[in-house]
Every structure is written in C-alpha cells, then in structure tokens.
Amino acid sequence: MYDIIIVGGGTAGLSAAIYGVRAGRKVLILEAKSYGGQIVNSPEVENYPGIRKISGMEFAKGLYEQATGLGAEFRQGQVLRIEVRENHRSAVVSEADGSETEYKAKAVILATGARNRPLGVAREQELTGAGVSYCATCDGMFFRGKQVAVAGGGNTALEDAAFLSHYCERVYVIHRRDRFRGEERLVENLRQKENVEFVLDAVVEELMGKDILEGVRIRNVLSGEEMELSVSGLFVAIGQMPDNDGFAGIVSLDEKGYIQAAEDCRTEAPGIFVAGDCRTKEVRQLATAAADGAVAALAACEYIG
Ligand code: NAP
C-alpha cells in the first residue's frame, strides 16, 4: 500500500513526487513510457525560473534523479484505469503478457500530460516514421542536408524550425494564419535565418510520395491557391491534446477532454488529484506543471492526514 500513486512521470508528476516524499510519504510513479514527458522533446528550455538555459532532456533527468534520489519509486506501466474503493484507490496497470497488476494507495494524482495532436491529413499515420514526425529533436538528424517543413505556429513549431535550421538545407514553416501564437523573440530569430521560409495562411492538404514522404501539397486559405513543396520531412507541431478517456468514469472531463479541477488540483472524486497539462487551465508551461505538482502533492498529503 502506497500513500500516493502518481500517474505520469513528466514535470508535474515528478514534481508531485518530490513534494510527496519530502512530506514523508511512500510514493509510486507509474509512467507508460520513459520519464520526462513532453519536455524531453524541447532542445532548449530558457524560461524555467532559476535556470538560464538547459536541454529538455537534461531538465527531465534532473527531476527524475531528484525524485527517485529522495525515495520515490518509479515503475514503467500503462495505467488502464483508476478504481475508487472505500479505504483506498487502485491503479490498474496492463502488463506485457496481457495480465493486469493492481497498485493500491490512499490517494492518486493524475499527471498524464497531453499527446501530440495529429494534422488529420490523409496517410499521416502511414507516413509517420517515413518522413512525418512529431519530434524534431528525436528525428531531425535523419534530415541533415535535406528540405523539411514544420507545420504549426506555436512555440514548439518555432523552436523546432530553429533547431532544424542548423543542419537542414531549407526549413519551411507552414502556419494557417499570418500571426504566430509563439513568442515574437522566436519568430524574429527565424526571420534572421536565410534557410528558413515562412509559408503563411496555408494548410497542408496532401502528403506526397509512395512509401516515404517526398513533398507536401499546401493550400492558401485566403486565395485557395495550391502549391507543392518538395520536402523529405514534415514535422507536425500543432499542439497537444489530452489522453484522459480512461479516467472519465471517476473524474469530470471538460469539452476538450481535460480533467476538471481548479487551481487547488482537487477533483470531485475523493482522494483523486490532478496536476499539469491534463488539467483544465489557461497556461500550460513547465513552471505551471511544476507548480501543479507541488499543489496536488500537498493536497494529497492533507487528504491522507
Ligand atoms: P500551441 O501553443 O497550442 O500552438 C499550436 C499551433 O498549431 C498554433 O499556432 C495553432 O494555430 C496551430 N494549429 C492547431 N491546430 C491546427 C490544425 N489543425 N492545423 C494547422 N495548425 C494548427 O502548441 P505548442 O506550440 O505545442 O505549445 C504548447 C504549449 O507549450 C504552449 O503553452 C507553449 O507556449 C508551450 N511551449 C513552451 C516552450 C518554451 O517556452 N520553451 C516550448 C514549447 C512549447 P493558431 O495559432 O491559428 O491557433
């Protein structure tokens, strides 16, 4: 029996673990993949207070080592569902052989983050890994010296384009509007680069190439005009979406699928808390994920008593 089970080993989950173990609680983190969450895909983090510049991977490694070094247990496993019993909560994990393992705790913190949103264009899934990617840091090196495109206008797309511009011959940034959602400083940085070209008011209509991506057909949303870009890589960076359907029976989700809770990170289910990007909130940043982790862990400690 644990005091707190944390579902998700990203910034929010690991921060919650640090606060939980430092409050003297027995903490288990269950994570479907590897530790770190989305930040591991960020080449550079420059806006976490107190750290001038750090790679996302290095940041995540520091958090993981801090949490486990303080005594939090970390186990890889996909949580299928949470069950609320009279005296405890259970997290049911699916095992590789198809069996299920039940972990019990007095409180559960859901910190499942969010996953990449697909473009929704035909053959996107088929060509993922054959030119289509959702992670420039992971796959960018395969496109050294080649022409690539980044779809999106947020910080992720702008940072990805900057990262790719270091070794790709040309980087097109395809965005559906003429104003960027991401920071002006990042836009200005790209404007200075000769091998970066903005393709604005445009959306990807078609992925070209038989077995591997050879280009994209784009459409100008204002004029309707279409054109083809010859690229061997398309990096999709159009934001994230939550992955909370498995918890819909015990907590309320908003219309976009985020778990409903206020800044106190308490859900309406007793003993179930929520932290980070999977929660309804205005600002999804590293700093707010870490803050949620602290708030949720302390709320869970208070609940346990
Ligand atoms: P985001 O800020 O939500 O931006 C998503 C972008 O994709 C927007 O420009 C949006 O266009 C576009 N988009 C959405 N759906 C689309 C569709 N179906 N077709 C075409 N374009 C579409 O997502 P993000 O860039 O991944 O960032 C997520 C959060 O993480 C943000 O809060 C961001 O600030 C933060 N972040 C911070 C850093 C950093 O500070 N170092 C780095 C990365 C991310 P519209 O603008 O027209 O809606």
Report on this structure.
- The structure is a single chain.
- This protein has 305 residues and is of the alpha/beta class.
- The chain contains six helices and 17 strands.
- Strands 1, 2, 3, 4, 5, 6 and 17 form a seven-stranded mixed beta sheet that branches. A five-stranded parallel beta sheet has the order 8-15-9-10-11, with helices on one face. Strands 12-13-14 form a three-stranded antiparallel beta sheet, with no helix packed on it.
- Helix 4 links the parallel strand 9 and strand 10.
- Helix 1 runs parallel beside helix 6 and helix 4 runs parallel beside helix 5.
- The longest helix has 19 residues.
- It starts with a strand and ends with a helix.
- The model has no long low-confidence stretch (mean pLDDT 96).
- Bound molecules: NADP nicotinamide-adenine-dinucleotide phosphate.
- NADP nicotinamide-adenine-dinucleotide phosphate (NAP) binds next to helix 4.
Question: What layout of secondary structure does this protein have?
Answer:
Elements lengths: L1 E6 L3 H12 L4 E5 L24 H14 L3 E4 L1 E7 L4 E6 L5 E11 L3 E3 L15 E2 L2 H4 L7 E5 L3 H11 L4 E5 L9 H8 L4 E4 L2 E7 L6 E6 L5 E4 L3 E4 L3 E3 L29 E3 L11 H19 L1
Parallel strand pairs: 1-2, 1-6, 2-3, 6-17, 8-15, 9-10, 9-15, 10-11
Antiparallel strand pairs: 4-5, 5-6, 7-16, 12-13, 13-14
The structure holds NADP nicotinamide-adenine-dinucleotide phosphate.
